[in-house]
Amino acid sequence: MAVVIKYVVERNGVERMTFTSKKEADAYDKMLDVAESLEQMLSKVDVPLSEQQVESLALEIAKQKDEFLSVLKGAKPDTPKKVKKADTDDTDEKVTKINQA
Q1: Whether 55 contacts 39, CB under 8 Å
Q2: Shortest CA distance to 51 belongs to which of 39, 65, 37, 59?
Q3: pTM of the predicted model over 0.70
Q4: What is the mean pLDDT of the chain?
Q5: For the chain, which end, N or C, has fewer CB atoms within 10 Å of the first or last residue's CB respectively?
Q6: Distances (CA, A) of 44 to 33, 49, 50, 59, 101
């Protein structure tokens, strides 16, 4: 029989997530703290948002806080590279050649 230690993150009596590492559980709990603070901030903005939208937005900002902080400090957000038409045509040719072989 194996003994397994689990760390449970709980909020308001509701189990939110279970982890096998204390470090991961603490990080998740901290992210939820940030989201809760953001919810309070967002509920005061002069933009009509539903309670669900405020909660979802706060959680997403908290999940990506490092990227948001970087942008707020003036950095440009990372944008996904666009694939050029020529690149996709070349790839299609290679796939066709491989399939024919």
Answers
A1: yes
A2: 39
A3: no
A4: 81
A5: N
A6: 18, 10, 12, 16, 63
SS in 3 state form for the chain?
A: CCCCCCEEEEECCEEEEEECCHHHHHHHHHHHHHHHHHHHHHCCCCCCCCHHHHHHHHHHHHHCHHHHHHHHCCCCCCCCCCCCHHHHHHHHHHHHHHHHC
- List the one residue out of 79, 81, 74, 39 whose CA is nearest residue 58: 39
**Residues comprising the chain, all counted:** 101
pLDDT tens across 16-71, in order? 899 999 999 999 999 999 999 999 998 888 888 888 999 999 999 999 998 888 88
How far from 40 is each of 8, 26, 47, 60, CA to CA, in Å? 25, 21, 14, 14
